[in-house]
Each structure stands twice: as structure tokens, then as C-alpha cells.
Request: fold
Amino acid sequence: MIDTNSPVPLHLQLRDVIASEIRRGVYKEKIPSERDLMDRFLVSRTTVREAISHLVQDGMLEKIHGKGTFISQKTPVHEWLDSLNSLTHTVKKMGMEPDSKLLNSEIVSEPNHISELLQVDSLYTIERLRTADTIPFAIERHYYSKEIGMQLAKYDLEKSTIYDLLENNIGIELVEAEQFISCKEVSAEDAQKLEVPIGSSVLCVERLITNASGEPIEYYTSNFRPDMYVFRVKTKRKK
Reply:
């Protein structure tokens, strides 16, 4: 419930309570009105609206003008492009259970353009199938120098968050990412793993991550099911 003595802002506490009740099936189609939430939790209308706004942004709720705030019937993962987060963090934020299946982990010499981007002669690649609540939604491929890859290979790559390993265990700081998002036809092999029709389109993400010195650390590419993953960005008009 709401703890007025907690350092966590009230609207974030309320957001988490409502999200938990949605996941437990307390509400079927829509959440209670603002007035009902104010009376129940003894908070202001501003606090309620801020909490609901967060859940709308996360894709858990959707507001329909004149009718109320409804539980979203869609279940995609929403990723905001204003920060660099792991898929594990993003899926957990949506209230879903993330998991990984290691498909491949080895030293490779191709593709050449990735070797050039990372400024190395040989690459270490890690390929994983990602799921949210057991539903496959992405196939991701990480590329590193052989030295970094061999250090990562010492850990359980199915259960570990790779970015946590890089920063906390190996001591590599990830600072900046340049990312490209496009649409392409999925390969027959990836279609089978993602459980989508052969020839269908997927969201393709390519990303280069550098450290504080601007040195390239990781090249990343991933194919996302468009019915399971949404990229979101908020912008302001410049005056």
C-alpha cells in the first residue's frame, strides 16, 4: 500500500500498486475512477493522474475520452528510446517475466563491417532468443572483441544480464549508443524461433555502444516481433 514515510514518491508507489493489481486480475476491463483511487489511497488528484500517466506510457493502460481508463488488451513490451537499458530491465518494467535461451556463443571472423566498427580482427558473438512470459519476442546478437567475449563466456549467459556483467563484473562502462531501427523480412530460421510466419516482417535494431572514451565496445543487432515490441520516443517542438 501507500507509505507516506517512504522516500519513494507517492505517485510511483501508487503506480506500482495499480500495476500489481492489474497483473493479479483485480480489475477486468478498466481501473477505478480518479475519485475512487483518491478516496481509497488518501492521495491528491495530481498524484493519481501522475500514476495513471506512467501506466499509460508503459502501455499497461489506455485512456478513452469520455469513457475512462481501460486496461490495455495488447501485451507488447514498450521501450523508451531516451535511455540505454537491457532487455531484461525493459521486460521487467512491463511486469512480465524475462528469460533467455542461448543459441550460440563463439569466436567468428565475419561479418567484416562489424570487425571494422569494433576495430578488431576477430569477433566474439553471443546469440540469444528472448522471451517475455514464455512468449518469444526477439532474437538478439551481440558482437564483442574476442577478449571481452571470452570474459563474458565465463558466466551463465542464459540467466545473466549481459550489460550488468560488462559493467559490474568486467568493469567496462557503457556510456553512449547510436541506434538504427528498420523493418525487414525475417529469415526462415528466425521465423521458426520467433513463431511467426516465414516471409513476415520484423523490427530490426542495430546499435553501436561506446565507453566514456568513445571506444566501441559492442555491436548489437536484434529482430523483434512487431506484435510484441514497441519503440517509443517523446519529443518537444523547438521554438
About this structure: The domain at 10-71 is CATH 1.10.10.10 (Arc Repressor Mutant, subunit A).
